[in-house]
Amino acid sequence: MILRKKQLDVLPYYYLISKKLVKFLDKKEIATKISLPNSNIPKVLKRGSKEEPLFAEELVKNVDSKMLSLRDRHLDEIKNKLNRTQIKIWNYFVPRKLIDFLYATNNEGVNKKIERIFFDIDCGSLSSEKARIVAKELVYLIKNDKEFNKLVKYDLMPMWTGHSFHIYLFLSREVTPEFYDKYLMFSKSKPLESFTGRWADKISKKTKIKVIGGHEKVKNHINIDPSQTPSGKLARAPFSLNIKKFKIAGIALPLSIKDLDDKNLIKKLRCYNADKVIKDLNSLAKKIPARLR
């Protein structure tokens, strides 16, 4: 078992999946969200804007069997047996804790150029199946919007988050922060002025599912939210555990566009645990665009 119940450690799992993410996360600062049961602070966020930055390549090059053999002990007891980078990794991936694996979408810091856009399909209390339908329709609209496709060229990748979906656009050329403000940022007072708002409106009319743009939650609605795109914001990494109420609620998985047509997709995705991800890792990683794997 990758995640042993008696001696929980997510680091061996994240070490293995990081081997497939070195190019995907190239120069992107890693972030982790550490779950702390029985604490006044249920989750602690470690990220490159507050800690010494950590990168996927460092994780792959520095985690080894010797380090993993020491993970049943406290860091203060064995610090002298670790190198500086291993100590940094230890602080991001604390033993005996469930941890979400995140990264800075367009790097840490504000007002940097954007080279990847992502839309969070936040289904709230609605079903994951409705989120699949919305994700499928959003992909269709993006790919067939002539006005949008005159502005940018991209590789598109859907991703299962463990409960809902993200739609990634990996741009061929960087755009300025003003591109996001002008074309993607959702305005409640002017909902149809952005592509986000117009796409949400079209999906609502076609599917009869209540869909809105932006981050603000509305009961019985699904959000199409691009707000984690700008630099300084975080995204869930492919293959990350999705921790809810101190349990693994699902695992983030890259998808093909065709996968979204599958009416049995949610059932298939929910069959994945950490061991199955590692078993199928090579085939799953092939769903990441070729230039990022």
Question: What do you see in this structure?
Answer:
The structure is a single chain. The protein is globular. It has twelve helices and twelve strands. The strands form three sheets. The protein has a six-stranded mixed sheet. Strands 2-1-3-9 form a four-stranded antiparallel sheet, with no helix packed on it. It has a two-stranded antiparallel ribbon with strand order 10-11. It has 293 residues and is an alpha+beta fold. The protein has two domains: 11-104 and 237-247 and 271-284, no CATH class; 114-232, Alpha-Beta Plaits (2-Layer Sandwich), CATH 3.30.70.3300.
Count the strands?
Answer: 12
Decide which structural class fits the backbone: alpha+beta
Strand percentage: 15-25%
Radius of gyration: 19 Å
> Main β-sheet: number of strands, strand sense, barrel status?
6 strands, mixed
Mean pLDDT, all residues: 96
The tally of structural domains comes to 2
In DSSP terms, counting alpha (H) and pi (I) runs of 4 or more, how many helices? 12
The residue fraction in helices comes out at: 25-40%
Terminal CA distance reads: 26 Å
- String of helices and strands: HEEHHHHEEHHEEHHEEEEEEHHH
Low-confidence stretches: none
Strand order of the largest sheet: 7-8-4-6-5-12
- Which outline best applies? globular
Structural descriptors:
293 residues, alpha+beta, Alpha-Beta Plaits, six-stranded mixed β-sheet, globular
In a few lines, what is going on in this structure?
With 293 residues, this protein is of the alpha+beta class. It has twelve helices and twelve strands.
